[in-house]
């Protein structure tokens, strides 16, 4: 591994101090955030038309931006609602969650890209976990089978997007997140083939997406005929060779999750290597909320990405469950520091503002000039998930 810089060492020492904070402080922080989230999402509920999902908020126009249910983020809003219902028991929140599942269910047959896990497991997965409604389980299993139609044996991976002028057979690091749908479904009636596909994909990702320092390329483009790597590029990062921040968080989360299901130490080791790259990165700010790319031009005068931070926090909390001693303390303390930062006025919206979204300052895609420095549904989702995980595992 790389030699740790002075700045990175100072960050690790700061994390040690965070690990010593009283649990009462975190309980209060979590309770406050959950109450805030319920009130904010009720603002969002009252604005949202009945047949769409929230996407972001355009402050310049004071306008909620929505999407159809085929948009890759369509599962995050109902998924967040289920987490909030689990925490509060608020029946209005549950009713809204059930209503949104009703318009989302048809996407269980969607095969247009790899995002069925985000769409159907974050939503119906949480719903089934809390209700044991067999209808929800059927939706999950159907969605998993739909996702397998994108598996390409020649490249030993699930093709993320269809071919285009830019890519022939692209596989993106984000796809690690969608393997949860396959792993869960394979163990709950969907068949061993689902697990095999997920694990084959994860193994190929380790082989082809990761650099020696355990940063990840965003896109690996394959020759579908030969199965060989054609190019390693980016679609949303600063450069092909850079470490796009949310992509690094997706990988951390994805390999931690794969260890949860398989107990394959290769995945745990991969997750720990990624965590080391992130937490010792000289360009990681002191509050641990990443810039939109770890190699972004203009650091420190460039955008942060709260979504990359929230995904990282949730992943680190689970990684702490599979670690011991100082290593565990470092992961949990880092997550705590991220959650504390996201809960501050620097990132958390004021009540009644931000279109009902929780967090400010996320980045969708700077190269596409899309969703830059705005609230995003997945930033909220993983923020709430991380808070729920902290309460469950560490209080």
Automatic annotation (TrEMBL):
Keyword annotations: Hydrolase, Signal
Matching InterPro entries: 6-hairpin_glycosidase_sf, 6hp_glycosidase-like_sf, Glyco_hydro_88, UG_Glycosaminoglycan_Hydrolase
Name under which the protein is recorded: Glycoside hydrolase family 88 protein
Domain of life: Bacteria
Keyword Transmembrane helix: no
Record flagged with keyword Signal: yes
GO MF entries: hydrolase activity
Family per similarity comment: Belongs to the glycosyl hydrolase 88 family.
Signal peptide: 1-19
């Amino acid at each position: 591994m790389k030699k740790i810089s002075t700045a990175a060492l100072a960050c690790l020492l700061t994390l040690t101090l965070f690990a010593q904070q009283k649990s009462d402080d975190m309980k209060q922080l979590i309770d406050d955030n959950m109450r805030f989230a319920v009130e904010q999402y009720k603002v969002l509920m009252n604005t949202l038309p009945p047949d769409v999902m929230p996407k972001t908020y355009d402050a310049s126009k004071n306008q909620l931006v929505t999407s159809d249910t085929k948009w890759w983020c369509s599962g995050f809003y109902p998924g967040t609602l289920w987490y909030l219902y689990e925490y509060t028991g608020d029946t209005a929140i549950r009713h809204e969650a059930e209503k949104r599942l009703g318009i989302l269910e048809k996407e269980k047959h969607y095969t247009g890209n790899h995002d069925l896990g985000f769409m159907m497991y974050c939503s119906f997965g949480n719903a089934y976990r809390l209700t044991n409604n067999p209808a929800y389980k059927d939706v999950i299993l159907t969605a998993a089978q739909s996702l397998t139609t994108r598996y390409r044996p020649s490249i030993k991976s699930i093709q993320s997007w269809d071919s285009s002028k830019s890519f022939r057979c692209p596989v993106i690091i984000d796809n690690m997140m969608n393997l949860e749908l396959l792993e869960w479904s394979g163990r709950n009636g969907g068949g061993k083939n689902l697990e095999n596909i997920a694990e084959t994909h994860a193994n190929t990702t380790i082989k082809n997406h990761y650099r020696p320092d355990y940063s990840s390329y965003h896109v690996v483009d394959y020759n579908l005929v030969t199965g060989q790597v054609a190019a390693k590029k980016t679609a949303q990062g600063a450069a092909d060779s850079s470490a796009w921040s949310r992509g690094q968080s997706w990988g951390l989360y994805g390999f931690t999750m794969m260890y949860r299901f398989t107990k394959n130490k290769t995945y745990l080791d991969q997750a720990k290597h990624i965590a080391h790259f992130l937490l010792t990165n000289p360009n990681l700010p002191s509050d641990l909320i990443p810039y939109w790319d770890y190699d972004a031009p203009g650091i420190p005068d460039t955008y942060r990405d709260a979504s990359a931070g929230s995904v990282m926090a949730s992943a680190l909390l689970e990684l702490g469950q599979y670690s011991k001693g100082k290593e565990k303390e470092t992961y949990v303390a880092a997550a705590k520091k991220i959650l504390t930062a996201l809960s501050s006025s620097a990132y958390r919206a004021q009540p009644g503002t931000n279109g009902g979204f929780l967090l400010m300052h996320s980045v969708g895609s700077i190269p596409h000039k899309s969703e830059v420095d705005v609230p995003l549904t997945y930033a909220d989702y993983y923020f709430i998930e991380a808070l729920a995980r902290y309460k469950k595992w560490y209080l």
